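Q: Could you write out the predicted structure for this multi-component system? I'm mainly interested in how the pieces pack against one another.
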Amino acid sequence: MPLEAFNLAYLSVVIFTIVIAVAGASLLVLGILFRPSKPSAMKSIPYESGVPPVGRARERYSVRFYIIAMLFVLFDIEAVFLYPWAINFDGFVRRGDGVFILVEMLIFIFILLLGYAYAWKKGALDWVS
Amino acid sequence: MFSSAQFDWSLGGPLGGPSLLETAAAVNAKVNAPNEPFIWFLQTFITLFVIMNVVLLTMAYQTWAERKVIAFCQLRYGPKRTGPSGLLQPIADAVKMLTKEFIVPQEADRFVFFIAPLLGFVPAVAAFAIVPWGDANTEGLFGDWIRPVVANLNIGILYMLALSSVGVYGIVMAGYSSGNKYSMLGSLRSSAQVVSYELTLGLSLMGVLIQAGSLNLNDIVLQQKATIWYFIPQFVGFVCYFVSGIAETNRNPFDLPEAESELVAGFHLEYSGMSFGLFYLAEYINMNAIAVVAATLFFGGWAAPASFLEFIPGPLWLFAKFAFFLFLYYWIRSTLPRFRYDQLMGLVWKVIFPIVLANLVITAVVKIVGIQLGWWA
């Protein structure tokens, strides 16, 4: 059955990942045999340049990180659409449909660039306003 | 010259070519068809064992090479006390990390704190599963006991990009779970930087994909062998890829998450011993992955530069190209100062992103014109 041979590559990836995970975990655990363990209250204070920490660590942070995350999601989804297009481009061109598929993608990219220009104009891409 | 029909292993089917499953099966059946499932498993294990060791050893000696190269750039000696020319330094470092105490800060989310280094480490190494060290369509060494590639995936590049996305989780979890302000800030900066550059990392490969018409790394190498190494037609894409790759792995001059002078060490500040060691490993292995993929996609991978040099085996060629990129990393590190954070984010969103989009469109137009005018088959 052809599917079996096809899946073998994925099976290899799964085996590889499991072996790495086991190797990494054993590195972490192996150290128990060698390392000292003398916890103390002073040692476990979070490092803050040698002075007692002020306030909590999980404070609010800048909204710009959220904006970057949202922009990333938008443009990355667009990139995902571009992969199958780029892969099949060769086949379309050879059948003489090259201009058609190019124009289709140009429309897509143009709509995307409208959003990009809007984000730029609104200052979403500037870190310091 | 390879005809396109031979290499159109993409989403095939509706375009008239053979479907994805058929071609993949045909290729895999040639090499990987398991007559004996047990033998197949054994071969896979041996292959991945060898490749994992190559990855880890390269990483270990890369730290030595980096310190040496940077030392020579700065007219110093670098490590020289441990063994001849300091060659035992990586082993000394490993022993040190194994024997250091594992300190859990009091504010830490203990489970996440423990698991985060693994989440950074595993995807970094896993990316090496798809890198072909020789022609993946031929039999490996010793009667296929050591195969040229762990998994000849048809979606190789997507797999690589997906893994580099997963690597962000380790950083975020480490920063959040440490309960330290510096770690938190470092991980926020790092994740924003990594996701931004990931976008251009993926888009900068688009030109290569248009040219090769495949996501399979071995096909792309074969195409380059038959035509031209892609760093010549895709030079802009290559530069964008490499700059994004450096930023993606948080290396100088984009090492803001670890800016010693402001954030002490960024997201792995509270880590010690082997947990820190895993982050350290992950950083270098990520760097290796970017370098090895750059060598494969733009510099012909395992293919020799000229046919009279083909007596030198493929793995050595890939390794030489790979070493060149690592040297480039060290060179850049010892030459350029660190970016400011607004410059860093401005660079990716305002400069590299438009350039890679333009590169994509221009590559497509040139390909149409080239095929119409018969510049290439």
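A: Regarding packing and overall arrangement: Chain B touches chain A through 100 residues (CB under 8 Å).
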